[in-house]
Write a structure and sequence with these properties.
- Residues 3-58 form the Myb/SANT-like DNA-binding domain.
- This is Regulatory protein zeste.
- This protein has 219 residues and is mostly helical.
- 67% of the residues lie in helices and 0% in strands.
- Helix 1 runs antiparallel to helix 3 (32-52) and helix 5 packs antiparallel against helix 7 (145-218).
Length: 219
């Protein structure tokens, strides 16, 4: 007899489940009603076996995921501190004087006349000579070394952050594909195990029938 891949706990569980449903599995009546009950017994046995051995599959999955690298968390915290310029401390907040956004409380002078000499105002505006605004010249001084260093650090931190995020996406995709492949393999493996077990039980029933028939024949 070839060795199966069942663990000791699974074998004990399987024996108990077979014992539980043996009045249907070992039934000799072959009509449609009892055949249906036998199929239902097989389904119940499979469901109970899967539910009881679920924790073993979860433990195996955890053993596969645990060795994966987790160094990216520390790098992400470091790069976040560098890009914000705080080195992990409190961020610098600029205090703004909100009084500049509020209107003056001075009331309007209601004693001024409403009508004014619009023509005079127009002539005054037209007679005012236009002056050329002074041009702002671009400074030819190069940024000092401290500015260059800060910009280089910000660019390097941003690049590292993008690389870390890309690595996170690749790891998540790898875990998803690995989980899908593991579940597919375990499902197929369990199906084959149950098929072998069913064949063995059918063979066991046939042997019992043969032995019983030979005993009755001798008597």
């Amino acid at each position: 007899m070839s060795k199966t891949n069942f663990s000791v706990q699974e074998m004990e569980l399987l024996v108990n489940l077979v014992e539980k449903y043996k009045h249907f599995l070992n039934c000799k009546i072959t009509n449609a009603v009892f055949n249906k009950k036998k199929e239902e017994a097989w389904d119940s046995l499979t469901t109970d076996f899967n539910a009881a051995s679920l924790y073993e599959r979860l433990a195996a999955m955890g053993a596969l995921i645990e060795p994966l690298p987790c160094r990216f968390d520390c790098d992400y915290v470091y790069e976040t501190a560098v890009s914000s310029g705080t080195q992990g401390g409190e961020s610098a907040v600029v205090q703004v004087d909100e009084s500049i956004f509020t209107p003056d409380d001075h009331p309007l002078d209601e004693t001024l006349p409403v009508k004014q000499d619009l023509q005079k105002t127009r002539e005054t505006l037209c007679s005012t000579p236009l002056t050329t605004a002074p041009q702002i010249r671009k400074s030819k001084r190069k940024p000092n070394d401290s500015v260059k260093t800060a910009e280089a650090l910000a660019e390097a931190a941003n690049a590292r952050k993008v690389a870390v995020e890309r690595d996170y996406e690749q790891i998540a995709q790898f875990r998803e594909e690995e989980h899908r492949a593991t579940m597919t393999y375990q499902k197929r493996e369990h199906f084959l195990k149950m098929k072998v077990l069913k064949a063995k039980l059918e063979h066991y029933n046939l042997l019992n029938k043969k032995i019983k028939f030979e005993l009755e024949k001798e008597n």
